[in-house]
Design goal:
Structural class: alpha/beta
Number of helices: 20
Number of strands: 19
CATH class of the largest domain: Alpha Beta
Helix content: 25-40%
Number of domains: 4
CATH architecture of the largest domain: 3-Layer(aba) Sandwich
CATH topology of the largest domain: Rossmann fold
Strand order of the largest sheet: 5-6-9-8-7-4-10
Radius of gyration: 26 Å
Strand content: 15-25%
Largest sheet: 7 strands, mixed
Length: 569
Amino acid sequence: MRRLQENEVWFPTKSEYDPGISIEEWVSLLEDSEIFTEKSLRVMKCMKDIGGTASCKQLAMEYGASSGTYQNVSSALAERILAARGASKPPGAGVAVLYQIRRATRYEAGGWVWRLRENLSKALERVDLSTIPLYENFIEDKEINLSYWMLDFQKENFTYIAMPVKNIEACFIFKDKEEIIYKKLQRIRKGDYVVCLGEFSEGQLIAKCIVDNVDEDFITLIELENFVSTETWGSLVSTGVLPKFVMDDLDEKTLIKLDEEVYENILKSLGFVLTDKPSEVEISYPIDDFLKEVYMSEEKIRSIIRTLERKKNIILQGPPGVGKTFAAKRIAWLLLGSAKTNNIEFVQFHQNYSYEEFIMGFRPLAEGFELREGVFYNFCIKAKKCPNEKFFFIIDEINRANVSKVFGELLMLMENDHRNEEITLSYNGESFSIPDNLFIIGMMNTADRSIAMIDYALRRRFSFFELEPQFDSEGFRVYQKNLNSPLLDALLEQIKELNSVIRSDRGLGRGFCIGHSYFTGYSAIDFETLSSIISFDILPLLSEYWFDNEEEYFSWKERLEGILAHDRR
């Protein structure tokens, strides 16, 4: 795929490639379980839920799993669709049959952004995805006891797909599951290290990688370093760096397991830097950029930063549409000094979220059970390895779960003055601590009637900051002026008046106001967009608010729709 500039249009354009699949044909494909597997439908549901446009990294941060999962599931799905239709591959990436693609901007997570093809997006609205889980993790949790491997790129065993952006995933899609290589690859775990060799016309491509994902049909590696060299495995054997029995095993089986000493000797001999994490290009993120994107006063954000550095744990609470998630990620960027997504973990709590998923627990296998570490446990280990860096664990809908049960015995260790203190874990008897370079940012929707307030044991461990609609903030006023939409101006005046009524309603209050983010993120805004926001976002919310006061609901429905109707005339 060619490299795109930030200001380029989506690639490929319609003149360059059009899959030619109608809405009805997409519906038929979506209903074919051999083409759209449950994992494929889950990725599609995530794409629709996030608005139809996202990078793999954004999907991973919002819905869990790794960014490689979304890339690999989409790549495998595209291959099945192209094979089923007997179509030729699109230019560049095969996923272009599903998405149009562009380069991510400097403030977007990930390297490339996908946009669902229009007919596919419309077809997804016609199929029932209610049984497809949205936030379920796809992959196994990372194991802390790492292994080291040597892999030879042999294309008769699997297909190698190299991504065009540095430090983004390389994917191996298995061809024959009966081959020894496939069976042996099942022993690889997320977090393992691999040194790879590939044959190219100008020499040998030697790469140092980390395993990002192992799934039923593919393995994903994140490339840490690579270079083309005349060095061969044979020359490493002749110099004594690589034991001969290792080379013999490699010739026979393509993949072998190394001990740590041999692995490090190979890296040193080849001139690699010994490191335990991917290199990452840092993108400066000063407070001026924050204030342009997040409609918040400088005084308030500085207060939040001071409190987070002191207390280690904060919760951003507020009504829907005030940009809690958007703000949380950028608060982390501010304290990191750059948009470093590698130091941020994102999860969403729900009613069934458990200690076993979060910290540690037994997971079923084909025969029996296996003790697995959870996402928070693994992130703590990651933060401990880099004590001079800051790490941010962001929890959406933190009050949807039984938080005391999810954190278990680690609840005490969350407090600032108990960081780095050790406690014995209940499942394996291990001494464990939460490092002081790990910060927790939680988010609460104050308008959700279906969930209880957070319990007092956790409340005292967090500082709470309320985010409110910012229609009158300086940043939003500049954004509104740039849109130059009289219809938007008229609607926002009504929304501000509506919020005043909601605040004074004894059954509601300020925690139920309409947030500004419903109207943000547009470079231009038209009647259809505003009509959609009112009809499908604002009015359903008001219907829920005033389920016992139809007169108030219909009064505001008439007022908002009246503005739209007047503009239409």
